[in-house]
Each structure stands twice: as structure tokens, then as C-alpha cells.
């Protein structure tokens, strides 16, 4: 009998689970309540067996990740310079402090698009919060994603960060951006940024570092991004019942980073990036027009 949900009834799936349970407990103890809860998703026709298996494996990967993670306190809160041990309070402090750091981020760095530059971006944003600001992580990263419930992307192994980041930056730096039509430019930028983001070089703050890099790089290559235009599209939004009505920019990076065989959705991210480039270029043109008008007025 085929096992996919579409080829089985609920009763057949219950039998499959009962038989599996019988064999399982013949050699060990009863599965945990959490595992049974996840397996029930298969019985209820929600989650296929392969995804059930991935979710259960992910539970224990997450546990090991926490035990071996030197960046966090025992309660899971990131260790920080502020001495905050409550995760919600740290999030509030982090978003307020980093917001103020973004106010002058365009003038802080010289545009040198190598791994040292990436570190300097992260250091500027987070140096008042984390001792490891501007330093690549030295542990694996596991993050359960909203858009792939119960699972994490396969982020770059921490031992390969420098190599993969340099390879990715080489793609940025070797592309002749001036020769590309706007649509192709935004598509390629989206592809490279997704690769960059999926490396996840830092323990935290990767999406903010990625967007900062994108903005600086695009500006230096004459297609400035208007990130302010995207303000309403960046956060995750919920309705009154708590259901998600809009995915965040981070969620869109996740979707874009999913391997091809699992139906990636880079067009959502590309659409936002394309809009920001179009708006940024238009604003640049308007600024030049005003400058020319002011110059003409002075000459008269």
C-alpha cells in the first residue's frame, strides 16, 4: 500500500501508525508525547511521513544545538553586554539600539566589498550589545522557520563560512552590473543576496547585515535601493486571531533559499527588491534634477 496522504484513508493511516508503534516499543520504551503529537499530523492528513520524520529529528538537533551553543544563557537568551537574561527584554533593547545605529550606517563605512567589510557592518550594528559583534559564528545554526514549520534551512557549516562568503562576494564583485537591464539586475541581485543570506555568517543579525550590504553595494553600483519604500513590507503581520497575513522580509529570504526541488519562491523577494531599486533610481534622478535647477538658478 502506498503511504502518501492522498493515497490513504484516515483509518489506513491509523493502522500504519499502530503497526509502527508496535514494532517500536518491542525494543524500547514508548515514544514521547511530542513525537506522538507530530505523528498524529500524518494520521490527520496534515503532514506526510517524510516531513514527520524531519520534524522529529529537528527536535533533537535543536536540543543539541542549545546544549553546545556558547552564545546563549541556559534559558536560551543570547548572552549580551547589557546583562539582560530575559529574551523579550533583550529583543526590545536590541531593536531600539540597532535602530539608532542604522541612522548613520550609510556614512560609517568605506565601500570595500570583502569579508572584512561584512564584519565591519555587523560590528557597527551590534557592538553595544554583543561581545562577538563583527565576528563570524563558530557553531552550527538551527532556526525553526515560520514558513517551513518545525524545520530549519541547511545553513552554511561554520567551518566553511569564510570560503563560501568569499566565493559569494566574488560573484557580486565580478558582475558587470552597468550592462544589465533593470529586470535582470534585480533578479541577479536577489539570487546573490539569497546565497549571501543563507551563509548566515553571524550568530544573530544576518538579515539586517544582508540588507545593509545590499543597500551599500547597490548604491556604489549606481542602482540605489529605496528601503524606506519597503517599510510596510518588511515586518511579519498578523490578524486579530493571530493568523499571519504577511510574511516578513526574513520569511521571504527563507522561501527564496529553499532548494529548487522543493519549489522555491524567489519571486516574492525579487519583487520587493525590484520595487526598491526602481524607486531608488527615480529618487536619484529627481535629486539630480533639483541639483541642476539650483545650479541654473545660481548662474542666473
Biggest β-sheet, characterized?
2 strands, antiparallel
Q: How many individual β-strands?
A: 2
Q: Do you know the CATH topology of the largest domain?
A: Fic-like fold
| SS element count, helices | 10
Shape: globular
Verbal overview:
Helix content is 55%, strand content 2%. It is mainly α and 300 residues long. The radius of gyration is 23 Å and the shape is globular. The relative contact order is 0.08. The mean pLDDT is 85.
Quick structural summary:
The chain has 300 residues and is mostly helical. It has helices spanning 10-25, 33-43, 49-67, 87-102, 115-126, 161-174, 182-199, 206-220, 249-257, 266-299, and strands spanning 237-238, 244-246.
Descriptive tags:
single chain; 10 helices; 55% helix; two-stranded antiparallel sheet; mainly alpha; Fic-like fold; 300 residues; 2 domains
What is the secondary structure topology, with strand pairs?
Elements: H1 10-25, H2 33-43, H3 49-67, H4 87-102, H5 115-126, H6 161-174, H7 182-199, H8 206-220, E1 237-238, E2 244-246, H9 249-257, H10 266-299
Antiparallel strand pairs: 1-2
Amino acid at each position: 500500500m502506498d503511504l502518501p496522504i492522498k493515497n490513504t484513508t484516515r483509518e489506513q493511516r491509523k493502522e500504519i501508525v499502530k503497526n509502527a508503534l508496535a514494532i517500536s516499543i518491542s525494543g524500547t520504551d514508548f515514544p514521547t508525547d511530542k513525537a506522538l503529537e507530530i505523528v498524529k499530523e500524518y494520521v490527520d492528513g496534515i503532514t506526510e511521513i517524510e516531513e514527520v520524520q524531519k520534524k522529529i529529528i529537528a527536535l533533537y538537533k535543536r536540543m543539541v544545538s542549545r546544549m553546545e551553543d556558547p552564545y546563549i544563557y541556559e534559558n536560551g537568551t543570547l548572552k549580551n553586554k547589557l546583562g539582560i537574561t530575559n529574551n523579550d527584554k533583550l529583543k526590545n533593547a536590541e531593536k531600539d539600539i540597532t535602530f539608532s545605529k542604522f541612522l548613520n550606517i550609510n556614512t560609517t563605512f568605506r565601500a570595500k566589498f570583502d569579508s572584512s567589510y561584512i564584519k565591519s557592518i555587523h560590528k557597527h550594528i551590534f557592538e553595544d550589545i554583543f561581545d562577538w559583534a563583527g565576528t563570524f559564528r563558530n557553531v552550527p545554526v538551527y532556526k525553526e522557520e515560520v514558513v517551513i514549520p518545525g524545520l530549519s534551512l541547511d545553513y552554511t557549516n561554520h567551518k566553511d563560512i569564510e570560503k563560501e562568503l568569499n566565493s559569494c562576494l566574488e560573484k557580486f564583485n565580478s558582475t558587470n552590473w552597468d550592462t544589465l537591464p533593470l529586470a535582470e539586475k534585480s533578479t541577479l541581485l536577489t539570487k546573490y543576496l539569497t546565497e549571501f543570506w543563507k551563509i548566515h555568517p553571524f550568530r544573530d543579525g544576518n538579515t539586517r547585515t544582508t540588507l545593509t550590504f545590499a543597500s551599500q553595494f547597490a548604491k556604489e553600483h549606481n542602482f540605489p535601493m529605496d528601503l524606506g519604500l519597503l517599510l510596510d513590507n518588511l515586518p511579519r503581520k498578523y490578524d486579530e486571531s493571530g493568523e499571519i497575513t504577511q510574511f516578513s522580509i526574513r520569511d521571504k529570504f527563507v522561501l527564496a533559499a529553499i532548494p529548487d526541488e522543493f519549489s522555491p519562491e524567489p519571486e516574492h523577494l525579487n519583487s520587493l527588491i525590484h520595487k526598491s531599486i526602481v524607486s531608488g533610481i527615480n529618487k536619484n534622478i529627481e535629486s539630480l534634477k533639483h541639483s541642476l535647477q539650483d545650479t541654473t538658478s545660481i548662474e542666473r
